[in-house]
Every structure is written in structure tokens, then in C-alpha cells.
Amino acid sequence: MEKKKVLIIGGVAGGASCAARLRRLDESCEITILERGPHVSFANCGLPYFIGDVITAESKLVLANAELFRERFGIEVKLHHEAMAVDPASRSVTVRHALTGEDLVFPYDALVLSPGAAPIRPPLPGIDLPGIFSVRTIPDSKRIREWIDSRGATSAVVVGGGYIGIEMAENLLHRGLSVTLVEMQNEILPNFDPEMAVLVRQRLEERGCRFVLGNSVASFEGRENGSLQVLAKSGAKFDADLVILALGVRPETSLAREAGLKIGTTGGIEVDSHMRTSDPRIWAVGDAVQSLNIVTGQPLVLALAGPANRQGRVAADSIAGRNSEFRGVQATSILGVFGLAAASTGLTETALRRAGDSDFESVHIHPMNHVGYYPGATQIHLKLLFRPSNGKLLGAQAVGEADVARRIDVIAAFLQKGGTVEDLAEAELCYSPQFGAAKDPVNFAGMVASNVVDGDMPVANWENLPGGAFLLDVRDDDEFAEGHVPGATNIPLATLRQDFSALPKDRPVVAYCKVGQRGYYAVRFLRQNGIDARNVTGGILTWNALRETRLD
Length: 552
Ligand code: FAD
Hints:
By secondary structure, this protein is α/β, with parallel strands linked by helices. The N and C termini lie far apart (72 Å). β10, α5 (163-174) and β11 (178-183) form a beta-alpha-beta unit. The strands form eight sheets. A five-stranded parallel β-sheet has the order 3-2-1-7-18. Strands 9-16-10-11-12 form a five-stranded parallel β-sheet, with helices on one face. A five-stranded antiparallel β-sheet has the order 21-22-25-24-23, sandwiched between helices. The structure holds flavin-adenine dinucleotide. Flavin-adenine dinucleotide (FAD) binds at residues 9-10, 12-15, 34-37, 44-45, 47-48, 82-83, 114-116, 135-136, 164, 252, 255, 286-288, 303-306, 308. Residues 9-10, 12-15, 34-37, 44-45, 47-48, 82-83, 114-116, 135-136, 164, 252, 255, 286-288, 303-306, 308 line the site of flavin-adenine dinucleotide.
């Protein structure tokens, strides 16, 4: 009997994991990966660090090569083979050999599309000038390295302040270049709310990165000395020896479209929970597909390696006749910048507001990564979003020097399972002094949020203080003297009981302290004495962060 032919287009995160899993499930099928580039299974996520000389050997970026696939797994990898067209009727793919120009036809019984996503390159004047790069492949990053080295480049403009833009800024600074980052929005990192993203921006600013926010690039011009000039819409001009475009990515769907496969409303290939497309013999995975956002129930396209790998596994299961289902995504991600980590999962406040969702509340906490008495404790800034009506988790963001991933990963796991703030408060997590606290930051965030859900601690938000509120600073006198929120009256927590008569009884009182804890104690006292009191979680630390997000 002829072997079942499984053809996979794209040999990196989704495609390679699908191929390897399928072989583990089915020894009998013939698996072929078509990859248009010179590498299979390479580490796209490592490219910025290769450019930044943190990873110095190109070989470290190649996780497996064609020989390994053949010898270990019996999987044929065809490098430099670009799929040009899929014909579902004859179940075949027309392929062009990138080096010889030869056209070939590969038949299939099952086809998997994992072509990824292409960097966005808007049709701006001058965008194709030499020295303007996108970062997607190992050859891209080699070209950037060679450009820097051969020209002795000293300055760069990075366009776009998402993950890749920020990682590129860090790595170019690491190489000693001066870096200007231009971002259209008023703050970097759209996966974070501004008061969290600003902490990352400040770290980069401390290392010399210059930010141009709320401004977009209009065009590029070449100069006589071979360098570039970047012209912004505002009229500002920036000189640079190279430009990195990091404006986001777009799913590669041309093969799917031309084959007549259904494309989702978000522009990604439509798939079911088994990663099957509208053609029952074609599966699609990774950056090219439309996924289900498990928090909103809405479709979205998401370019992250974790979902691509998991989807590859689900597609393999489905091809092998198993019934595995992909659960959907929640955009859990992390980036590091000069020792600072920023991680997020689920929805941001910005996204909730944009969607017109008003049944949400947020709390900010600023605990240490482990108990303060053990040497080396550092602060974690954590924001938790949830539904006050039922306590359901909606999202979380954290920024800090250490153990940030662990906190967001735990919250992400609960979020995927539809968990609540009470689940976080009750989570049993490991503890000893050098690793955490008996009341871990995750528990702490859950407890603070539970106080909101239970009505014990109504909260106020710096961006949205109740009208006519009396602003009460319950920190000590010396802290107040060092700086406070304009319009605040200082009554330290320690004297609140004796100074109670000084408080208005006919309007809301909004209490704040440094991080929110003394504010909570004040609110409990005031509410038990008949005052409509609310706490600003995150305290003046969050207020300071928000102030930094304002554009001049
Ligand atoms: P890819 O891994 O992009 O693979 C697609 C492959 O298909 C490519 O090799 C391409 O050459 C090939 N291909 C496309 N069309 C054809 C065709 N017609 N014929 C043959 N071959 C074709 N994600 C994270 O979660 N964390 C990170 O830190 C992170 N950092 C990143 C840093 C950079 C610089 C980049 C570019 C991406 C990063 N990502 C990160 C995203 C992550 O790499 C992707 O989400 C993931 O690789 C998607 O897997 P995929 O299989 O869908 O596509």
C-alpha cells in the first residue's frame, strides 16, 4: 500500500513541531517539510540577540538541521523550496526551487500550512533604500550584522515599539550604537497598559535610548555619505546609519487565499479547534492562522512561538486520527530589557476600554519578589484585571527585576482555566525566604482583588477619581513632604482615628499611600465609620508611573 503523504509548508515553530509530533504518532506516513529559506527549525526569537552580539555563533540559532530530521525522525526537509500554489482539487503543491528556479509538483494526502507572518513594510517613500531592515530570518540578521560591521555604524532608528522593536533597541544599544525609537502611539508596548510599559521605557532611557512617541515615520531619504535620514510626520528628522522596521507582522495567507481556503475576519486562515482549515485535507498553524481569544471569545491573530508549537502538535494529532483540540490563546508573553522583565497575559485595561467593556476593575500591587529580610529582594510591579461582578480573571501584567515570569505564568494558568481572583488568593505556591513569601505576590494580588469583589475595599483609579472626592494621603508626614498628589490632604494612618473629625462626611474619600496597603487599612476604618471611602491601589507609585506616561 502506498504511504500516506504529509506535506508541511514552513519548517520552523509550527511546521517543525507538527512534523516531529506526527512521526512520534505514525511511523508509516511519509513526511516532507518544504522550507523556502536556508534553515529549518531555527530560533527566530534569538535573532535580536544574535544582532546584539549576545549570541555570537550563528550555529546556536539552528536548533535542528535537515540531516537530523532525516536521520532521527525519517522526515525529509526540502530547503530552498518555496511553495508557490496549492491545488486542493488535485491535492498537490507547486514548488519552486529557489536556487535552480526549477518548478516541481508535490502531491499530498494531508497538507499543513505553517508559513508564519511577514513583517509589515508600509509603502513609504524610500522604504526600499539600502540600510532599512526587517528582522525575520537568520539571513536578515546576518545582513544587519554585516551592515553594522562593514560601515562602522554608530546610530540606528528603530521604527515601532512592540516586542521586536524593543528587543532590537536593547541589542543595538548593547552593541554601542545610539538608538532612537519612533512609535506612533503615545507609549511603547501595546500588550501593556501605559503605567506598566513606562517602566520598560525608563530602563531603556537610562541606557541612552531616545524615544519619539506619538509620531510616525513619513519617509526615508538616503544621504551622500551612505547614511539615512528618517522623516517623521511631525516634520522632525533623524539621522541613522541603519533603520530597523518593527511595525508588526501580517499573517502569510496568500497560498491559502489562492487555494480558496476560508480566511477569518481578522485576516488569518480560519481553522477549527483541530487546526483544520475549510478544506478537510488541509491544516494550518502558527502566525498565519486566526485563533480564538479565550478571554474575549473573539477571534484574533497572534504571533507567538508557544501557540505555534502547541498548534503544530494538535494538527499532528488530528492528522494521526486523534481528537486533540487547541484551547485558544490569551497572549501570554514576556520580554527582557537590561535586567528588567515585563510579562503579560490576557487583556489590558486599554483593550477592555477599546472593546467598550466596563465590567472590569484593576488593582496594582508593588510587592518584593521574595521576603524583604532575605538579601537581594527586588520589587515587582503587578497589575491584575478582573470582573468585579464575578471575580473572573481578565489579565495581568508585571514588571520587575526578578521572578516576573513565574508570577505571570501562574496567573496565566488560572486564566486559561477560567479562574477567579479567589483562586489566586487560595493558590498554594512554593515558598522559602530566598524564593518568595508565605503570601506570594500572586496570592497577594488575588487577596487585594478579592477585597474589591467582596465589597470590603472599593477602589478608585487615578485616571478616573470620583467627582468631588476628598483626596486623603495616609502616609507619614515626611513622606508627604517629599512629594504628594496635588490637592491631597495628609492625615497619616497612625493619627486617622484621632483626626477622624477633620474628614468630610458628605462626599467620597479617596485614600492613597505609597503602594496601597495603608490605604486599604484606612478604607476599612473609614467605611466602618460610615464614610464612602475608596482606596487607590498601587498608591503614589502607580500615580508616578502614570505621570511619566504623559507626553510633553
Ligand atoms: P515561522 O516560525 O515564521 O516559520 C514560517 C516558515 O515558513 C519560515 O521559515 C518561512 O521561510 C517559511 N515559509 C513561508 N512561506 C513559505 C512558502 N511559500 N514555501 C516554503 N516555506 C515558506 N515569539 C515568542 O513567543 N517569544 C519571543 O521572544 C519571540 N521573539 C521573536 C523575535 C523575532 C525577531 C521574530 C521574527 C519572532 C519572534 N517571535 C517570538 C515570534 C515567533 O517566532 C513566531 O510566533 C513563530 O515562529 C511562528 O511560527 P510559525 O511556524 O507560524 O512561523
